[in-house]
């Protein structure tokens, strides 16, 4: 089984800040890495596929990168609606989600 | 437009079988590469993938839950049914269904609103 970890587990930031969330896979997953955003009480929203491709309609302040075992999601210029929990998901061997990173307002 | 909606019981007793239905519209499970998956989320916890039903009848299951899960598609073609046997309190979660149109790359672009299932006697 492929295990996913995320760091930090939570972070606080201010409007306008740039933040980076890291996701690590227990083995190489090539670029089979997706990202989701989940606001409280809502279903997850699909953000990034294949590590670095923005889903249609996702603001360009979101960007993803990485290959192999280490991946990042960067949000440049935080907006109020960005405060949420972010999950990475590997798709190399079936599906595993990371534990999530909660981003809240400082 | 694309929509998915989960339906089923909100309360199930331990050892019972849970049956949830995902009713979708705006896309077809006959389209090559398309699938409908199930993902759950215990209260305050992370997402856990359960299974996905693909356009060609291929079904993939989470190995950790395989023995308890069954996915089927209704004959009308716009519903996918998840059956989970022998439920326990740890199965208390919000259950989501979602579309996978990734041609086998397992990403979920549209999600239902979720349905909270509580397992309790």
What brief labels describe this structure?
heterodimer, A: 106 residues, mainly beta, four-stranded antiparallel sheet, 0% helix, globular, B: mainly beta, seven-stranded mixed sheet
Q: Helix count of chain A, per DSSP?
A: 0
- In quaternary terms, these chains amount to heterodimer
C-alpha end-to-end distance of chain B: 39 Å
Name the shape of chain B in a single word: globular
Beta-strand share of residues of chain A: over 45%
Major sheet size, sense and barrel closure of chain B: 7 strands, mixed
Radius of gyration of chain B equals 14 Å
Percent of residues of chain B in helical segments? under 10%
Instruction: Label the overall shape of chain A.
Output: globular
The ordered H/E elements of chain A are: EEEEEEEEEEE
Number of strands of chain A: 11
Helix fraction of chain A, binned, reads under 10%
Q: Count interface residues per chain for the largest interface.
A: A-B, 22 and 24 residues
User: Order of helices and strands of chain B, N to C?
Assistant: EEEEEEEEEEE
What's the average pLDDT of chain A?
97
Mean pLDDT value of chain B: 96
Strand segment count of chain B: 11
| Computed structural class of chain B | mainly beta
């Amino acid at each position: 089984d492929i295990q996913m970890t995320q760091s930090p587990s939570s972070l606080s930031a201010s409007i306008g800040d740039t933040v980076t969330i890291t996701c690590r896979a227990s083995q190489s997953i090539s670029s089979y890495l997706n990202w989701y955003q989940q606001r409280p009480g809502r279903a997850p929203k699909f953000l990034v596929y294949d590590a670095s491709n923005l889903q249609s309609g996702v603001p360009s302040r979101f960007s993803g990168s990485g290959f192999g075992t280490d991946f990042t999601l960067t949000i440049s210029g935080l907006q109020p609606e960005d405060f949420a929990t972010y999950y990475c998901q590997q798709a190399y061997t079936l599906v595993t989600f990371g534990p999530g990173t909660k981003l809240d307002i400082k | 437009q694309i929509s998915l909606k989960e339906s089923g019981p909100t309360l199930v007793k331990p050892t019972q079988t849970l049956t949830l239905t995902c009713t979708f519209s705006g896309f077809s499970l006959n389209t090559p590469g398309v699938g409908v998956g199930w993902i759950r989320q215990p209260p305050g916890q992370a997402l856990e993938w359960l299974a996905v039903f693909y356009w060609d009848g291929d079904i993939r299951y989470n190995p950790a839950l395989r023995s308890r899960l069954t996915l089927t598609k209704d004959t009308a073609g716009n519903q996918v049914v998840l059956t989970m046997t022998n439920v326990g309190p740890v199965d208390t979660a919000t259950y989501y269904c979602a579309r996978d149109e990734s041609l086998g790359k397992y990403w979920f672009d549209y999600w239902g609103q979720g349905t909270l299932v509580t397992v309790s006697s």
